Amino acid sequence: MKNILVTGGTGFIGSHTCFSLLSEGYNVYAIDSLVNSSKKSLLYIEEIFRSRDIDISNKLRFFEGDIRKKDFINYIFKTALKEKKPIDGVIHFAGLKAVAESVIKPLNYWENNVFGSYNLIKSMKENNCKTIVFSSSATVYRFSSDNLLSEDNQLKPINPYGSTKLAVENLLNDITQDANGNWKIAILRYFNPIGAHESGLIGENPLNKPNNIFPIIINSAYTKEKLKVFGNDWPTKDGTCIRDYVHVMDLADGHIKALDFLLRNKTQLIKLNIGTGIGHSVLDLIKTFENANNVSVPFEFDERREGDVCQLVADNSKAKSILNWSPAKSLKEMCIDGWKWKNTNPKGYM
Ligand SMILES: NC(=O)c1ccc[n+]([C@@H]2O[C@H](COP(=O)([O-])OP(=O)(O)OC[C@H]3O[C@@H](n4cnc5c(N)ncnc54)[C@H](O)[C@@H]3O)[C@@H](O)[C@H]2O)c1
To answer: What is the residue with the minimal CA distance to atom 1 of ligand 1?
Structure first.
């Protein structure tokens, strides 16, 4: 069975992907600095498997450390080799992701996201591992129209976070020219991942104040504090912004399929949107959450927020045809699973 290094493995998407990798029989070496997560997520993963009478103790290893330190990454490759489980591929989630913070601390974002990725890629090359799936984002696109965004859309991020994602994409593009390369690379551009594992045991656990809508909706449903909906005068059916929400387990599945595709195929670089291709307004999301969970989500309208765009919906046809991937879960399921996570762990992983 293949051995996979997962950077950012205790984070929101990383932990769900570790779960899916383990379910598919992969051995997982997860690393994380814990700057925005807790290693308890991995304990809960073990618990889910235990409840199914499956022992994964020798299939999941965790190493706390920072990808800005190349020696640390090299150490993981060497350890895996010593354990006779040489790393076959990497899924690279580790990074900072708060758009607003990236505007205030751009150097932190460049150092963490770009320099960290550079180190990882260098270490991969030194250890002769040339297969990587990279977490990119729809924020790399220039948002010019209200059409579905395809991978060929013009690229023009409008904040440092998006710039760092594009910089890593460019780095990955460039290394395909390396004469001794033989790289196999999948760049996945996520839209809006939400929801949680259906057990309610793992989910999104932002250590700082979240600025994406779904955790804010969950908090508001829980505390009954009013949330702010930014803008009700956008040119959409109800005046609120439209986004493409994708269940985190479908996203995890997209990673497994991308990894499997790379491992089975020749040297190449693919760029794929991972979204459902269906747009929902902020009000749709709030109403669906309320109806699915029989709770109220108090909200009020506020001014449009700087940097927001009206609509962001994926053209996911390429991921569907190349990976044979298809999102299976509905918006209602995303809302039910997210709320179950909150009620199972009201304080996250505390
Ligand atoms: N969640 C989203 O809406 C979204 C959308 C598009 C892209 N992404 C990207 O997907 C990836 C995962 O996102 P997430 O939502 O799971 O975020 P997350 O913050 O939950 O996970 C990222 C993980 O990386 C770790 N990390 C950060 N810097 C590190 C470093 N230098 N060394 C080691 N570990 C480090 C954090 O502790 C965290 O556990 C990120 O790269 C993010 O930019 C996320």
So the answer is: 193
pLDDT tier, 191 (very low <50, low <70, confident <90, very high otherwise): very high
β-partners of residue 245 are: 192
32 within ligand 1 shell (Cβ under 6 A): yes
Return the residue whose CA atom lies nearest to atom 32 of ligand 1.
Answer: 66
What is the Cβ-side half-sphere exposure of residue 223, based on CA atoms within 13 angstroms? Answer: 12
Q: What pLDDT, in 10s, does the model give residues 247-295?
A: 999 999 999 999 999 999 999 999 999 999 999 999 999 999 999 999 9
In order of their start, the domains of the chain are 3-344 (3.40.50.720)
CA distance 151 to 27: 31
Q: Which residues are catalytic?
A: 161
The ligand 1 atom nearest the CA atom of 36: 37
Q: How far is the CA of 91 from the centre of ligand 1 (A)?
A: 12
pTM for this predicted structure: 0.97
Q: How far is the CA of 71 from the centre of ligand 1 (A)?
A: 21
